[in-house]
Amino acid sequence: MGDERVGLHLFSTAGFLDDSWFNRTYWMYSARWPGFYIANQAPKTGQLLVFDDKRTYGVNAFTRRNRHSPFFFPETDGYLIFADDNDNEPILTGEPGGPEAVAWLRQNEYDSSRGTVDIAMPTFDKDKGIGFTRAKPPLWMSWVNVRARAMTLAHSGEGDGKTLFFAGPPDVLVPGDELAAFQGRAGGWLWAVSAADGETIARLQLDDAPVFDGMIAARDMLFMTTENGQILGFADPSVRTLIDPAKKAS
Question: Quick one: 45 and 165 in the same domain?
């Protein structure tokens, strides 16, 4: 199926500049090139990832499966933000000497033309199986109603604490303009959560959504490029007070 062990790398099966989020493509931080396998059940895998020397954080849009392909249903589950240890490698059930998969999503099986497929069924070297799964659950995961198109990890003040920032359009279907959020006509949100446990620190409503992968933290500042061509800068020596929820970005 084209997978190959090549050492720990950040991979993208569509290219790092592709912002289309096609449902069979993904980013993966792994020691194994994923080949043709689907990986919406895998650790350290999603539509956008950030990582440090210990953990990987990301957003997974396609947490459900319908026959052969992962699916996303707007204004239903939302998007999954998660954290994994870097040694939590994707697995293929049924691979000789491999571990068993754990159930962790709301949908851990799906119906196919060949009957019900679940994570316990062998998928190693099999086409159209459940694909890569995981042997350990995430460190934490949280469902959010924002399509996180930009993400970065930053130190939060003193010590080893870190904050995960992500931003994007809301997960809404505007009556009469159902594609508004997907096409940049519904504004955006900036979130800050604790990298330790995913607890929400703050949220800030934005006039415009960020461009794909358009966020970075440097020198106690957070920078974000938006769809309307602006560069927003947020400055504070303590990341935990970087965002004032009572104020709106301009």
Answer: no
Average pLDDT over residues 204-233: 93
Domain match, 109 and 168 both: no
- Reported as a single tens digit per residue, the pLDDT across 122-145 is 777 777 678 899 999 999 999 999
Residues 19 and 102 in one domain: yes
Q: Please indicate, yes or no, if residue 248 is contained in any of the structural domains.
A: no
Q: What is the dihedral of CA 123, 129, 130, 132, to 10 degrees?
A: 50
**Across residues 175-196, what is the average pLDDT?**
94
Q: What is the pLDDT of residues 90-102, one digit of tens each?
A: 999 888 998 999 9
> For the chain, how many structural domains are there in total?
2
Is 0.85 topped by the overall pTM? yes
My answer on whether 156 and 93 are in the same domain is no
Domain shared by 114 and 191, yes or no = no
The answer to whether the CB of 186 falls within 8 A of the CB of 173 is no
Please report whether residue 55 resides in a domain: yes
Q: Give me the domain span that covers residue 208.
A: 146-241
Nearest Cα neighbor of 117 from 126, 104, 106, 108 is 108
